[in-house]
Each structure stands twice: as C-alpha cells, then as structure tokens.
Amino acid sequence: MASEYFYVNKQILPDYLDKVILARELLENHEATTVTEATEKVGISRNTYYKYKDYVFRASDSGISRHAVLSIILADAPGALSAVLSCLSQLKTSILTISQAIPIAGKANLLLSLDISQLAVEIDELVTSLEELPLVKHVHLDALE
C-alpha cells in the first residue's frame, strides 16, 4: 500500500499552505486569539485555513517524526479501548496522554498523543491498523511532529 503522506519541499506548494501552518502556529502560541485574527495576519481566508489546517504540518528539524496526535471514535463496547491500546503497543508506540469522553449515542471519542519514535511501520499504516479494528469507527491524524 502506498503511503498517503509525503515530505515535500515547500517551494513546489502553493504559498497559502505555508500560511495555514503560520496561522495555526499563531493560534497555538497565543499570538492570535481567533481564527479570523490569525488568518488576517497571514493573509489567507478563513475558508482556506479550515480546509487545510488538519492536512499540512511542518516537518520537525530532525526530519524524523516523534509525536502524533490521533482522534479516534470507538464503539461503546467492552474491549474497544483495550484493542486500541494493544494495537499501539504491538506497533511500538508509547502513549503520552490519553483522554476518553463519556460515550454518547453508542460512540466514545478518544484523543491520544503518542511517542512514535520507535514506530514499527509508517504513520499511515498505523492509522489503517487502527481503522481495521472491529470496534473502531473512525481514526483521524490530528497532528504530526
């Protein structure tokens, strides 16, 4: 299976993708308090920011990703969280933080931050492995560092 993720030089990408990252960094560093303020400072529309904010990331200086944040929707069933944790362990990840919401309408939201420095597969294979678990409804890669 071909990877869904690429490292590319920003020179071949449209300028607005770099501006999306800059806007996100302004918000994260509290240099802007709203998305509107951040997007105005970098010169992009709010629509552009929302369209790409979850899909473009700055590569770390070392060139090796070491942390990832995943949002997962689980079925409200015994063993769902255990299956996710077991899968992550088998793929050589370490959990840095974990937060699970109270199940609503038969689904529970799970937010994980992971140390992936020892990851045994590519990040997209990790996502696919989790998506293939029977009690996992959806997996989203929120951030990669």
UniProtKB/TrEMBL annotation:
Coiled coil: none annotated. Residues 69-144 form the ACT domain. InterPro entries: ACT-like_dom_sf, ACT_dom, UPF0735_ACT_dom-cont. Belongs to the UPF0735 family. NCBIfam families: PRK04435.1. This is UPF0735 ACT domain-containing protein FYJ62_01845. It comes from Lactobacillus porci.
